[in-house]
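Dear support,

I submitted the protein below through the web form. The confirmation email said the job was done, but the results page showed an empty box. After a refresh the structure appeared. I'm attaching both so you can tell me whether what I see now is the final result or a partial one.
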Amino acid sequence: MRAELAAKPRAWVIGGSGAIGGAVVRALRARQVDTVMTYRSRKEPALALAAETGARALELQLSSRDALIPQLDAELALGRPSLIVHCVAQSAALPLVELSEALWRDTLQANAESALWLAQWAAARELSPLDLVFTGGLDRSQSLPLPVHYAATQGMLAAMVMALGHELGPRGIRVNMVSLGVMDAGLSATLTSERRTDYEHFSALRRVGRAEEAAQVITWLGLENSYIQGKVIAVNGGI
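What the results page shows now:
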């Protein structure tokens, strides 16, 4: 583990009640990292995971910047994080012609805007050293049949990480993104069996990924990385 974090790392997992977020919580707690996990609506799974791992579950509303910042400040008063993992993702398997403005706004806010305001808050509070690790579903080199509204938010995340890496690096904040392929849980569970078979066929490893495999990379970026900055790391089985 990095010398700068050797004393007592503290992690926040935003969206810790989901499949990937939950795996990250388990991986961090296995390394004795003091961990706060947040949830928005999945209270029961969050409380169950907290009881299992010893992490602390915190309800966090992501509806707007004005709602998010006071909640972050309140948690900051209890201790400064050295790692923040953004594991929030939502989508719906809808074609473009069926996309409503309300669904688009909700997807944009949850997947991308909350990450933007989180980074802004960390910079304004001068949290350093700090690692910000975002999770997403595109690495900027793939061509995949994804719902347009979901893909748009993932493109925003990837571009934002690049820009944030340059702006926040001098402040002692590392920002990176882990781009996931088809996994065995989470959003991937909404895929049709036909689409899942297609992904497996075009995967270099001929299989989907496990949430624990994603968590390994995310945890490494948060606790071990010292020189990767502003990059999108693909964890997708070679799609």
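Response: this is the final, complete result; the empty box was a page-load delay. The two ends are 30 Å apart (CA to CA).
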